[in-house]
Amino acid sequence: MTIKIQGDKITFPDDSEQTTAYVGSSGGGSTPEALVWEDKTAERVVDTVYTNTNDVPLYIDLYFSCVEDTYFETYINDNWHGTVGRTLGSGGGDDYQKTMLIVPANQTYKVVSNGTVGTYKWYEARMPLAVAVGGASGGGETVALNTLLTSAQVIPHSLKTTIFYDDTKLDTDSNYNSSTGKYTIPSDGIYRIGASVNLKKDNSLIDSLAYLNINSEVVQRNRFDYTATTDTSSSFMAVNIDYVADLKKGDEVYISAYGRTKDNSDLELLGGLDVGNVFNIIKVSGGSASGGGTPSSFARIVDEKPQGVDAGASVSGIQQRTLNKIVSDDDSIVTLAEDKSFTLQAGTYVIDYSAPVFQSNYTKIYLHSVTDNATADNGTSGYNEGGYSSGRYGGQYIVTLTSPHTYQVQQYIQNPATNGLGLACTSGVGIFATVDIEKVGSGGSGGGTLDIDALPELPTELEGTDLFVTERTGTNYKVSADELKG
User: Fold this and answer.
1) Which pairing describes strands 390-401 and 267-269: parallel, antiparallel, or unpaired?
2) How many whole angstroms separate alpha carbon 385 and alpha carbon 382?
3) Which residue of 4, 85, 258, 344 pairs with 11 in a disulfide if CB–CB is 3.0 to 4.6 A?
């Protein structure tokens, strides 16, 4: 029996073939799937059910305008995933609301309107297959940035201003420049970008905007308008960025803020660990080699309540948000305990968490590490006063774990209310607190490892000889045959 190796192709005795990379090489030659945003604005309408027919999760990026007491509700598989909109009364101005959904494969999704809700933009993108990336030229390294603003920054009235985040917690490639506020992309690939912008101005705040800029081009702009019938003692606005982009080495990414006031005075971009002005970037796939890496995995855990049941009463102070159901976790990357805590094993993760509140006055959301007994991430904050005022707050946390860690979603609420953790859904089950977890695929070594299940049975008389050496590592089969001649 002979086994022939020509280039990156192995031909076995039964004439079957397997493509691989030579041991010690820089990896194979395949490329990862590109992320492609499709503008579905002309094809999608509210109050209509759609299905993700892909075999991977689907990003849904929604940007709506709402006027006065109007809002929209999002559903996945007929489960309510929250209300976004406006309940400021007839004196309020237009409110431009932004949200992003991740819809698992083969599940349905819809947007339900309540009042005058106009579709501004509706984009969709398949979650890219995180092709195993390996080798020196494969780009399989973890790339991540987590930086926040600890010192308040002045945002001049009606002037778009770059945010200079000044406290970098994680920068794997040292590519963030706090003097310019820009992050330089170190390698080609698909990146997820998140940011929160929290502005404050006593009495006279009109509107605020957050901008995501790539190479000086605005690729996402989210806006919140606020014109109260009477002045309040203080006004807060939280505007979020959540975006996925196919970027090239050398691209520059940065966040800008903009705001207006009634008296043309400047605004304050809040600083401090408890505010949550953050800027996150993580590479979710990329590179050009095809070594022995692993694909990305996705999981979602939620607080689900039956139709007509609210999320519960709030208390004045910090409370743990309920998480009582795993709705998606094909690769078993998360475990849930006591309807409030979730545990992740070693790996690199992007954790998106959010929860609604009702009549809270001031509120702030956190991701708490039970393992470290410390706040892992500060999410957004805001103010919901009286009437039917409600809002949804969240954050994004990027972390590389070397050991198992347990987390909880916690929320500070100033004003207690009977249903302060979220109003009941009247048209189906309600989804309140939500945690989306993406475990980022690891890079291969470029060593040409092969999955044993994908290989034909090897001739045993050749195993262990000088000419054909095999090595098992878990479910992988490593083949080295530099001296083998067919």
Assistant:
1) unpaired
2) 10
3) 4
Q: Is residue 202 part of a domain?
A: yes
What distance lies between CA 270 and its chain's CA centroid? 23
Give the pLDDT of residue 269: 85
| pLDDT digits 0-9 by tens, 219-250 | 888 776 554 444 444 456 667 787 888 899 99
End-to-end CA distance of the chain: 9
Task: Establish if 460 belongs to a structural domain.
Answer: no
For residue 390, the domain's CATH number is: 2.60.120.40
- Under 8 Å CB-to-CB from 42, ≥6 apart: which residues? none
Pick the more confident residue, 445 or 215. 215
The per-residue pLDDT for 260 is 84
Over residues 259-264, the mean pLDDT reads: 84
Q: How far apart are CA 115 and CA 64, in angstroms?
A: 12
Residue 386 burial (CB < 10 Å; 0-12/13-18/19+)?
exposed
Residue 444 domain-assigned (yes or no): no
| Secondary structure (3-state) at 26 | coil
Picking from 358, 360, 352, 333, the residue whose alpha carbon sits closest to that of residue 430 is 358
Residue 444 pLDDT > 70, yes or no? no
pLDDT at 404: 94
For residue 175, the model assigns a pLDDT of 94
Sheet bearing 4-6, strands edge to edge? 4-6, 9-11, 17-19
Q: Which structural domain, as residue segments, surrounds residue 261?
A: 38-439
Q: Spell out a b/e string for 282-295, using b for 16 or more CB atoms within 10 Å of the CB, else e.
A: bbbbbbbbbbbbeb
The helix/strand/coil state of 248 is coil
Q: Could you give the number of structural domains in the chain?
A: 1
| Whole-angstrom distance, CA of residue 30 vs CA of residue 45 | 38
Hey, how many other C-beta atoms are within 10 angstroms of the C-beta on 204?
Answer: 17
Residue 478 lies in a domain: no
Q: Tokens 């800008």 — which residue?
A: 256
Q: How confident is the model at residue 379 (pLDDT cuts 50, 70, 90)?
A: confident
List all residues 6 or more positions away from 67 whose beta carbon is below 8 Å from its beta carbon: 86, 92, 93, 94, 95, 115, 116
Lowest mean pLDDT among 161-165, 291-295, 353-357: 291-295
